Amino acid sequence: MNSKWIFGLYVMLVVVQLAVPISQIWRYEDILQTGHVYKFRTAPIDPYDAFRGRYVFLSFADTVAPIRPGDKLGSGPAYVELAEGEDGFAQFKQVSVEPPASADYLQVNDPWEDWERKSLCYFRLPFDKFFMEESAAPKAEEAYRKFGNRRGETQGDAYALVRVKGGIGVIEDVYIKNQPIREFIKTIPQIENP
């Protein structure tokens, strides 16, 4: 009787351990299939801290929005309302302490108010890594730095296509010169290793 109880507990532990990652994978795949698509402009990055492992590190432009009148931001999460601008890129409409009822939004953690203009909020987007195959990532990182965004430029030729649903954003692809980065790196000469 005791061994059956221990075995049952073991099976339940295994099921719980498998359920957590499977539910996270399912949630991101659901967002990629059914989420609203936005294009986010990327910003120049520090080339010395740009590549870590098997992903391209992204920085985003214009991550600031007005705070909804009457809201007081604390140390918890905030919600950034999204809209598509006339140029086809995502615009940040306002930041609030509650999720918008009828608009797409992203949940951001630890937003900070502008010290001089208390009505503005700065934030980091909850996604900044675009994962790729290990063999393609170094060339993609180099292409992103050379052709997509450069220091001193306010707008480069790179952007991220992001699906948004229920406050969560998932990067679908990164584009350079209106081509998916995986296709773009095929058009440039081989990068030599140092």
Quick summary of this structure?
The protein has 194 residues and is α+β, with helices and mostly antiparallel strands. It has helices spanning 2-34, 137-148, 181-184; strands spanning 36-41, 55-57, 64-66, 78-84, 90-96, 105-108, 112-113, 120-122, 129-131, 158-165, 168-176, 179-180.
Give the CA-based shape.
flat
Q: Helix proportion of residues, in percent?
A: 25-40%
DSSP strand count: 12
The structural domain count equals: 2
Q: Could you tell me the radius of gyration in angstroms?
A: 20 Å
Q: Please, what is the average pLDDT? A: 81
Classify the beta-strand content into a percent band. 25-35%
Distance between the termini: 64 Å
The biggest beta sheet, please?
4 strands, antiparallel
Description:
This protein is an alpha+beta fold and 194 residues long. It has two domains: 1-34; 36-187, no CATH class. The protein is built from three helices and twelve strands; from the N terminus they run αβββββββββαβββα. It has helices spanning 2-34, 137-148, 181-184, and strands spanning 36-41, 55-57, 64-66, 78-84, 90-96, 105-108, 112-113, 120-122, 129-131, 158-165, 168-176, 179-180. The strands form four sheets. It has a four-stranded antiparallel sheet. A hairpin with a 5-residue loop joins β4 (78-84) and β5 (90-96). 22% of the residues are buried. Mean pLDDT is 81; it is low at 46-52.
